[in-house]
Design a protein that fits this description.
Phage tail protein beta-alpha-beta fold; 15-stranded mixed beta sheet
């Protein structure tokens, strides 16, 4: 149960109560700003290698190579009307030279090739306004195809480059660049590099996988002691991958962290119905780069042969190429709608995609269709994130607690005798996850991740973050092979993983994230309901016992093909009927793991054996899977413990006003 202020706890238990709710819509998904690009410039510059970075003064510095010349463009105060077509020659380069840049404070450094093997750079100490002389960094073992760089500070940085299928690095230490050294990974070919520093040097590599010849985008770390040991390479982790021979190719990756880690790369398909376009993705909000938890890549209606480079100033971000400038406003559009709420009906049930609805007063016509998604109502649009605060007016002021975030799946305008209103049809976090259906298989090998780790990675494909409140032994111990197949949603993948363990998922109030927890029979009650005394009032209720399965069996196959068997017996339930539940699974590697699966089946049968309901005044902090106790002699309850398996909040203002919560309760 969410923690509540003492005044709010007292208010929701009082016999006389004054409801208070807040409803705010933001242009976010899972608490992360939606990527909406505004085109600020579309020029006629030839496609070619390019790079970009923002100075500490907010200036936008862009670099491009055309023929044998490296050009620079600097816009001191980027805006929609700025002139992005002014380019100044900076250096002579080998034809088609790759280019990279990095920034630390007011120092901007640009890297390029004067010959096919000679790496050169120039430095600006005033945010790109003026430039020092050309300097030599080193000589590569062969023709350099791609460059990327990132600075830790003014004296420590990393440059990476590719020669054939190998990647090399040169590290600046105490202001001096070291020798080029090869990485410790192997790929068949490289088609792009990107680099960003935060704790370690975090890289993206596009290319083709060795042996399988699968087109791939990987992430890899060069360590600085945060997630990777200093001056060592991590293994390659697949971010995106297509099948060998599919006609798909990935190239031109870029990475940045304007708010969270974001990437872009070019995806091209050469088969029937050929296409070439930009794909973008982001990590969940607090994820480390090393976690490799990227959202399912989204196509963007932009075809830029050399991709789009990320750069940001802290308040704004840009995606740019030689001929394009796109602006990404980091400010989140929001609108408060509490004063317009006529009624609402909110749902929170295990893995249920439905989130309910909210009716908004539209008597003034300001919420007509042509007003939505723009101006003051820019956030009020399909996909908008809805934050609801449930509360009461108290002696300490108006207080609320955050209901799990919801998302707008439908906008329905209604006019009837009572007036005009706009109904927001809402999705839960499970509905948001259900929208994500991978276009390609997402595979995890046996022994790679525990069930807990797989849950986190599956939910990250929908941009949803996961944290553990508690976990069962099986969730941490089992490390099965797992595949998300094309056409199967994130929601379907979650269900198949949860079938293996006793753990459940709970939406986090107000954050867009999810908690894993292990509901145990020994869990203590966190809240009391009753019909008299200083307890939360029960308005009405019912309870039902149902016969349930008493013998759960899990059947698996071991590594050598030997059968694996696990079971869970509930002799108390057998007093009604002997009912068996049998499941077959290939996810177990031992009889112990088969036992975990059988226990999961048995626990869910035990919880489902109760089918109680109580109607109460809204408890602002109640959460899914909480254990509560109920006292109501008329229903036979005497501090009877039950587990919350569903919540429904109803609110209606006016003469028929209501503000109540229906709790569906199961066995502990």
């Amino acid at each position: 149960m969410r923690s509540l202020a003492a005044a709010l706890l007292a208010a929701q238990k009082a016999r006389s109560r004054r409801p208070y709710i807040t409803v705010t819509v933001r242009d976010r998904q899972a608490n992360i700003r939606r990527l909406r690009l505004a085109s600020w410039y579309s020029g006629s510059e030839a496609a070619g290698p390019h790079a970009a970075c923002c100075g500490s003064d907010g200036s936008l510095n862009r670099f491009r190579v055309e023929g044998t010349t490296l050009y620079r463009s600097r816009v001191a105060t980027p805006a929609v009307g700025s002139d992005y077509s002014v380019w100044v020659s900076l250096s002579a380069v080998v034809s088609g030279s790759p280019v990279a840049c990095m920034v630390t404070g007011s120092t901007v450094t640009v890297f390029y090739m004067s010959t096919s093997t000679a790496v050169k750079y120039r430095v600006s100490s005033d945010n790109g306004a003026s430039w020092g002389a050309e300097q030599a960094l080193g000589t590569a073992a062969g023709t350099v195809a791609y460059l990327a760089a990132a600075a830790k500070n003014s004296t420590t940085a990393l440059l990476v480059l590719s020669v054939g299928s190998s990647v090399y690095r040169s590290k600046m230490v105490s202001g001096s660049w070291g020798a080029l050294g090869a990485w410790t990974n192997s790929v068949d070919s490289v088609s792009g590099l990107a680099c960003h520093y935060l704790g370690d040097w975090n890289l993206l590599v596009a290319g083709v996988e060795l042996t399988t010849l699968a087109p791939t985008v990987w992430e890899v770390l060069y360590g600085d002691g945060f997630s990777q040991s200093p001056d060592s390479w991590s293994s390659l982790l697949v971010t995106s991958q297509a099948a060998s021979g599919s006609g798909v190719a990935f190239s031109s990756p870029f990475v940045g962290r304007p708010d969270v880690y974001r990437l872009s790369y070019r995806e091209a398909y050469a088969g029937s119905g050929a296409y070439s376009r930009l794909a973008t993705s982001h990590q969940v909000s607090t994820s480390d780069f090393a976690a490799n938890q990227w959202r399912e890549p989204e196509p963007v209606a932009v075809d830029v042969v050399q991709g789009l480079a990320w750069s940001s100033s802290g308040v704004a971000a840009y995606l740019t190429s030689a001929s394009r400038v796109y602006f990404f406003d980091l400010a989140v559009a929001a609108v408060e709608l509490a004063s317009r709420v006529v009624a609402l009906d909110l749902l929170d049930r295990p893995l249920s995609e439905a989130g309910g609805w909210i009716d908004l007063d539209n008597a003034d016509g300001e919420l007509n269709a042509d007003q939505l998604g723009a101006g003051s109502y820019a956030a009020l649009r399909l996909g908008g994130e809805v934050a609801v605060g449930l509360g009461y007016r108290t002696a300490s002021g108006d207080l609320t607690s955050a209901w799990p975030l919801l998302w707008i799946d439908g906008l329905e305008h209604v006019r009837e005798a009572g007036g005009s209103r706009l109904r927001l049809h809402l999705l839960s976090v499970w509905g948001l996850s259900g929208k994500v259906v991978p276009a390609r298989p997402v595979q995890y090998g046996a022994g790679g991740y525990s069930v807990l780790g797989l849950l986190a990675r599956v939910l990250s494909r929908a941009g949803v973050e996961v944290a553990a409140l508690s976990s069962s032994p099986g969730a941490a111990a089992m490390m099965p092979a797992f595949v998300m197949r094309p056409g199967g949603s994130v929601g379907a993948a979650l269900r198949s993983l949860l079938e293996l363990v006793e753990d459940e998922l709970r939406p986090a109030g107000g954050t867009g994230g999810v908690y894993t927890l292990w509901p145990q029979p020994s869990d203590a009650s966190v809240y009391s309901y009753g019909v008299s005394g200083d307890v939360h009032l029960v308005l009405s209720g019912s309870h039902r016992q149902s016969a349930r399965g008493s013998h759960a069996v899990a059947l698996g196959v071991g590594v050598a093909g030997a059968p694996l068997y696990g079971e869970s017996l509930d002799f108390g339930a057998q007093g009604a009927f002997y009912e068996s539940r049998a499941v077959s699974t290939r996810a177990v590697a031992s009889a112990t793991e088969a036992g975990y699966v059988a226990s999961a089946v048995g626990r869910r049968e035990a919880i489902a054996g109760r089918g109680d309901e109580v109607l109460v005044p809204v408890n602002c902090g109640q959460e899914l899977w909480d254990v509560v106790d109920v006292t109501d002699p008329a229903l036979g309850y005497s501090a009877s413990e039950r587990r919350v398996v569903g919540l429904r909040v109803s609110y209606e203002r006016g003469a028929r006003g209501r503000y109540d919560m229906r709790l569906w309760l199961g066995g502990v």
